[in-house]
């Protein structure tokens, strides 16, 4: 393998005219795509605001006194548009083509319902009376239709103008190749045509980069990764980097500009006292609101569970939270009594025979998690944070990944980064990276965004796929690596 350092940099060759043209074409397409998406977002916002104006003019105008010297209608429209803009951005509702069409539509639906809910009470306050709710319901129905048609059209435009990238993946550990199989699920955005081990050497890697439109760097040693990244940066090659734990920790650092040398301060203590205070206040406030509709639902579920098999209503399980403290998490029992009578964890799979009839319903709708509101009130948990793991899982993961303990710098949460952006079968290391991204980037608005996005996740069916497909994934990984290695050998023999 080649040595990395000054000799590598000095050995670089200039890009050919064809390679430069390809890079410029890719950059232009990327810039154009961003501008078009912003224009599309503006068009949809204008349409939603116009619909709101029409509904207001013919249904609510007579219930309000003239505001702002007769210009109140413009203020109302601007406020409505501003709320839509904020919620759409928070929920990724403008990411036409970038996210799946169904995800964009659901994001917009959730945003529309929240904005129209707030808008109705805003109008009631202005009119100093409870107004007819039917026009707002009609507005919501029309908006929902718009949020189907426009994302469909804009996503189609995106896919027409966006050509999937001819991508090169450079990997370190063999398990890093699994990312390719995840990205293969979005062929409309990512096309990985070659995977390459970093051990092949910098010269060979550089030659391959010249033939591709984009590069993915995954689990490559720091020195090698730096050389590849600098080369791609210099030549404006689109580059995706899978962050290491240290990268995520550094991102959360505080920028210090007291000297002419940049500094990042890493405190490593999780949240500061002020953040903990406001987070706790927000948790209590949200619990009190959630219990208003939650208590009747919990009563109905408790009766249904009791009537089905006369067993206990709640299921208690030891979980680990902040500082490694163990507590009993509460759930509605969705499985038969003694489902884990051998004392060992057995993750549920699709069509698991241990799941009861009531359990199937409450698991599909996530209602089985409702009792954890009581855990939050007791301060065992927070609404948002790393999902508390079982004690045996924590012990196992910390043996394999010592950094897994970093998750316990904050309280466990009902929802979090890993629950929104991960899957049921996401690896422990990937969950750790997602949870650290939350810890290092914590803010009140991030909590608010994740809570709103959790509503979207609840509308999607939970995926349990993966626990019974480990061997299949291992086989696919090995076949890919072997085939790529064989192709490289043939290429070297042919002298190409």
What are its keywords?
496 residues, disordered N terminus, 3-stranded antiparallel beta sheet, 4-stranded parallel beta sheet, alpha/beta, 17 helices, single chain
Structure at a glance:
With 496 residues, the chain is of the alpha/beta class. It is built from 17 helices and 11 strands.
What does the average pLDDT come to?
85
* Portion of residues within helices: 55-70%
End-to-end Cα distance, whole Å, is 19 Å
- Provide the succession of SSEs: HHHHHEHEHEHEHEEHEEHHEEHEHHHH
Largest sheet: 4 strands, parallel
Any low-confidence stretches, pLDDT <50, length ≥5? 1-10, 462-467
- List the strand order in the largest sheet: 2-1-3-4
Which structural class fits the helix and strand makeup?
alpha/beta
Portion in beta strands = 5-15%
Q: Please state the overall shape, judged from the principal axes of the Cα atoms.
A: globular
Count of helix runs:
17
Tell me the total number of β-strands. 11
How large is the radius of gyration? Answer: 26 Å
List strands and helices in order, with pairings.
Elements: H1 6-10, H2 17-59, H3 72-90, H4 101-127, H5 134-161, E1 165-171, H6 178-183, E2 190-197, H7 202-210, E3 214-218, H8 222-234, E4 238-241, H9 245-251, E5 254-256, E6 263-265, H10 273-309, E7 314-320, E8 326-332, H11 357-364, H12 372-377, E9 381-384, E10 389-390, H13 391-400, E11 412-415, H14 417-421, H15 428-440, H16 444-458, H17 470-494
Parallel strand pairs: 1-2, 1-3, 3-4, 9-11
Antiparallel strand pairs: 5-6, 7-8, 7-10
């Amino acid at each position: 393998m080649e040595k990395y350092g000054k000799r590598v940099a000095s050995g670089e060759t200039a890009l050919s005219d064809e390679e430069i043209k390809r890079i410029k074409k890719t950059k232009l397409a990327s810039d154009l795509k961003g501008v078009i998406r912003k224009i599309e977002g503006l068009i949809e916002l204008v349409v939603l605001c116009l619909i709101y104006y029409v509904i207001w003019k013919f249904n609510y105008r007579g219930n309000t006194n003239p505001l702002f010297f007769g210009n109140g209608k413009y203020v109302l429209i601007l406020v409505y548009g501003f709320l839509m803009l904020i919620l759409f951005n928070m929920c990724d509702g403008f990411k036409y083509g970038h996210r799946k069409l169904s995800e964009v539509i659901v994001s917009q639906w959730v945003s529309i319902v929240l904005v129209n809910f707030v808008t109705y009470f805003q109008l009631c306050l202005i009119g100093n009376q409870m107004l007819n709710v039917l026009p707002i319901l009609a507005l919501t129905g029309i908006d929902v239709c718009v949020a189907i048609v426009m994302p469909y059209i804009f996503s189609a435009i995106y896919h027409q103008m966006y050509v999937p990238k001819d991508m090169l993946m450079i990997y370190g550990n063999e398990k890093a190749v699994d990312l390719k199989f995840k990205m293969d699920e979005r062929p409309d955005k990512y096309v990985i045509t070659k995977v390459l081990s970093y051990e092949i050497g910098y010269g060979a890697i550089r030659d391959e980069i010249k033939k591709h439109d984009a590069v993915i760097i995954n689990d490559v040693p720091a020195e090698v990764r730096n050389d590849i990244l600098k080369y791609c940066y210099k030549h404006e090659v689109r580059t995706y980097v899978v962050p290491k734990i240290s990268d995520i920790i550094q991102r959360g650092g505080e920028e210090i500009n007291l000297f002419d040398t940049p500094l990042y301060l890493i405190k490593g203590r999780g949240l500061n006292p002020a953040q903990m205070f406001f987070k706790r206040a927000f948790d209590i406030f949200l619990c009190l609101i959630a219990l208003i509709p939650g208590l009747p639902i919990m009563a109905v579920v408790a009766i249904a569970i009791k009537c089905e098999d006369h067993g206990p209503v709640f299921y208690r399980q030891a979980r680990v939270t902040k500082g490694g403290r163990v507590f009993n998490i509460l759930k509605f029992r969705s499985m038969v009594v003694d489902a884990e009578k051998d004392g060992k964890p057995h993750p549920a799979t699709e069509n698991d025979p241990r799941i009861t009839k009531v359990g199937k319903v409450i698991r599909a709708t996530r209602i089985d998690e409702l009792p954890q509101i009581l855990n939050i009130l007791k301060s065992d948990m927070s609404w948002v944070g790393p999902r508390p793991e079982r004690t045996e899982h924590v012990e196992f993961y910390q043996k394999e990944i010592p950094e897994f303990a970093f998750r316990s710098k904050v309280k466990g949460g009902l929802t979090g980064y890993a629950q929104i952006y991960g899957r049921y079968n996401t690896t422990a290391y990937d969950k750790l990276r997602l949870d650290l991204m939350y810890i290092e980037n914590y803010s009140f608005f991030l909590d608010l965004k994740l809570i709103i996005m959790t509503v979207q996740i609840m509308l999607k069916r939970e995926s349990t796929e993966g626990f019974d497909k480990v061997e299949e994934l291992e086989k696919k990984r090995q076949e890919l690596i072997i085939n790529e290695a064989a192709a490289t050998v043939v290429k070297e023999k042919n002298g190409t």
